[in-house]
Design a protein that fits this description.
The chain has a domain of 66 residues. It has a two-stranded antiparallel sheet. Helix content is 9%, strand content 23%. The longest helix is centred in the C-terminal third of the chain and has 10 residues. The protein starts with 44 loop residues before the first strand and ends with a helix. It contains 1 helix and 2 strands; from the N terminus they run E-E-H. With 114 residues, the protein is mostly beta strands. The protein is elongated, with a radius of gyration of 20 Å.
Length: 114
């Protein structure tokens, strides 16, 4: 199987070929040291556990599926990027707290992600 990737650039007269510089996201409720999303700028994480998000059929019948929501404490940003971390397991083993999932979620929340 072959995959073809194509990139297209369109030049419009009177415009720059360079993209506009990114506007920094203000860090509110966080440490003044560090850059949001790259460094830990929050020290505490709020965890809301066992939020039911769907019901699915598995090998044993129907099962409710739950998620845990990790968010930085004190963040006043109205819009934040969210990361959905889904573990594999085919409804046979593992869970939302398996492996390093909890540690990774806490680390990402301290950087400003939800």
């Amino acid at each position: 199987m072959a995959v073809l990737l194509v990139s297209v650039s369109i030049a419009v007269p009177g415009t720059s070929a360079q993209p506009a510089p990114a506007v920094p996201v203000p860090v509110t409720g966080a440490s003044a040291v560090g850059e949001r999303y790259l460094d830990q700028v929050f020290s505490d994480v709020k965890v809301t556990k066992d939020i039911k998000f769907t019901r699915q059929l598995n090998v044993n019948g129907w099962a409710d599926l739950y998620l845990d929501l990790y968010e930085p404490v004190g963040d006043t940003a109205r819009q934040r990027p969210a990361i959905i971390w889904a573990h594999g397991g085919w409804f046979a083993f593992g869970g939302k707290g398996a492996g390093t999932s909890v540690e990774m979620a806490e680390e990402l929340a301290k950087r400003g992600f939800v």
